[in-house]
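Ops channel
N.P.: pipeline sanity check, posting one input/output pair.
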């Protein structure tokens, strides 16, 4: 293989590698869905738990695929009257200080002030999205770790942008996509303004969790193909000059 062809293949490989990196989307849910060839969602509606019930360690999200689970975390703390309490994530089905259901015709959503994770037990996905409710009014910050096989971290999105005016009850949609279909899970990391002051934690709501496929859109965009073509033409011309 001559050095010019080798360089051309390296350029194509580099372009593909850049395109395969997980990308973060923030905007309208419809805008994200319009780039998917298929998708399913789970508004946490199918879970048979009562109002304010503590969730089990692992919550099955059956609508998102067999084996898809949400795993919460817990933290002991002292209550207002110095009693021993345990903080956990909750499935809620009634209004809660700015958090609420976002599923049409639904009632339940996931609420947490602590880290939690979602794993796609049936295999990796190409896209994942969720509604984020009541973010930023108590200065909490949410980061995402996108997980690959073996819980390896494919990408980290630190401190997702809060609304410009983070009023109570704000609603945002975030999505992550990866055309290489290598997303095995997502780790949600919630940092608090004062980790020691549990009673002042910023609670966040999550609903309409979604997984999707971008199979129909895996072909590189025309602009990307044009850039690769121009690179190849340039390398070919350089090769002709070198042989003269």
């Amino acid at each position: 293989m001559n050095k010019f062809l080798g360089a051309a293949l390296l350029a194509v490989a580099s372009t593909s590698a850049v395109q395969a990196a997980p990308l973060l989307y923030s905007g309208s849910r419809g805008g994200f869905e319009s780039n998917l060839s298929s998708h399913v969602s789970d508004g946490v509606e199918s879970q048979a738990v009562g109002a304010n019930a503590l969730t089990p360690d692992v919550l099955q999200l059956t609508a998102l695929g067999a084996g898809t689970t949400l795993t919460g975390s817990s933290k002991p703390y002292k209550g207002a009257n110095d009693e021993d309490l345990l903080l956990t994530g909750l499935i809620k089905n009634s209004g809660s200080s700015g958090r609420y259901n976002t599923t049409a015709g639904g009632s339940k959503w996931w609420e947490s002030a602590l880290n939690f994770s979602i794993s796609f037990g049936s295999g990796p996905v190409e896209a994942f999205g969720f509604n984020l409710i009541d973010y930023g009014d108590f200065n909490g910050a949410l980061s995402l770790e996108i997980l690959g096989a073996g819980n390896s971290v494919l990408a980290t999105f630190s401190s997702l942008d809060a609304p410009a005016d983070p009023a109570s009850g704000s609603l945002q949609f975030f999505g992550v996509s990866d055309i290489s279909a290598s997303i095995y899970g997502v780790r949600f990391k919630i940092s608090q303004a004062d980790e020691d002051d549990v009673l002042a934690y910023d609670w966040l709501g999550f609903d309409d969790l979604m997984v999707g496929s971008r199979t129909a859109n895996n072909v590189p965009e025309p602009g990307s193909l044009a850039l690769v073509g121009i690179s190849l033409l340039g390398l070919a011309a350089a090769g002709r000059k070198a042989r003269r």
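N.P.: looks fine end to end. The chain has three helices and 15 strands.
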